[in-house]
Design a protein that fits this description.
Elements: H1 2-58, E1 73-76, E2 82-85, E3 91-94, E4 99-102, E5 111-116, E6 118-122, E7 131-134, E8 138-142, E9 146-150, E10 155-161, E11 164-168, E12 171-175, E13 179-183, E14 189-193, E15 199-207, H2 208-219, E16 222-224, E17 233-240, H3 242-250, E18 256-261, E19 264-268
Length: about 270
């Protein structure tokens, strides 16, 4: 009887232990399934959040139309001249110890550059975007032309072709081909022509000295002549280059032209 009771007790205990083991196993499986489900949900959410994070990382409110930041382009020479072609097709020959910087929006909204030194510019034509040079103290604006800019000793712009506008201390000067704009260290402006450029001169009832002074200013040259003729009167309109005009005004006084240098002429008897 004791044996039978012990057997029944052991059987009940085994069934209880088996049932408890089954419960533990079942709960363990349920936890694993739940973990897998949660992990799947996390990965699904992560798959959505990662590209959203990347997108929002590249988006800035208010800058929907902003373009990528452009780096400043600088052209520089040391001991020798160099040729450069700008993004708009403009060709530049930089002399030694010169520097040219392009604005960050060059070619898109403006064609503005800053410059120091000496250079030759062959500017590509673009009527919608003027080419503007900020030369520290004065500005040069063109649409499409060929000119030389020199600021090593004095400020100077020489126009070969086209048309140029020079802005200096609130004053604007328009240059024509073969014309030079000049501003010395004293700040005084001048503009003059090559010697072969034809100009019209109104010499009606003017003194010889006044006519010579006008020619010197127009062509940036020194003209020496005998002082005895300075008050003689010239009367007439004369059109021509320097050589032709000098011959015309000198003829009545039997003066001949002697060229001493590129910038100096002597009228002799």
């Amino acid at each position: 009887m004791d044996f039978e009771n012990q057997w029944k007790a052991v059987s009940r205990e085994n069934r209880t232990m088996a049932h408890a083991a089954d419960q533990r196993i079942r709960k363990g499986l349920e936890r694993r399934i739940q973990l897998r489900r949660n992990r799947g949900k996390f990965l699904a959410v992560a798959a959505v959040l990662v590209p959203l994070f990347i997108i929002t990382g590249l988006y800035f409110p208010g800058n929907e139309k902003s373009s990528p930041v452009r780096k400043e382009i600088v052209f520089h020479t040391s001991n020798e001249k160099k040729n450069f072609v700008l993004p708009d097709g403009t060709t530049i020959i930089l002399e030694p110890q010169s520097e040219l910087k392009l604005a960050q929006d060059f070619g898109s909204k403006t064609r503005r550059v800053s410059f120091t030194g000496k250079a030759f510019f062959s500017v590509a034509k673009n009527k919608n975007l003027p080419f503007i040079v900020d030369a520290k103290g004065f500005k040069v604006q063109v649409l499409g032309t060929r000119f030389t800019l020199d600021q090593k000793e004095n400020n100077r712009v020489y126009l070969q072709e086209g048309k140029v506008k020079v802005e200096y201390k609130g004053h604007t000067t328009y240059l024509l081909p073969k014309e030079t704009w000049f501003a010395g260290k004293d700040g005084i402006e001048k503009h003059f022509y090559d010697l072969d450029v034809e100009r019209k001169f109104d010499f009606n009832d003017v003194k010889f000295s006044e006519a010579v002074s006008k020619l010197e200013k127009t062509y940036h040259i020194t003209i020496d002549y005998p002082a005895e003729f300075k008050n003689n009167i010239i009367d007439g309109d004369i059109t021509g280059n320097l050589d032709k005009v000098l011959q015309t005004v000198s003829f009545p006084f039997n003066l001949r032209t002697v060229k001493k240098s590129e910038n100096r002429i002597i009228l002799k008897k």
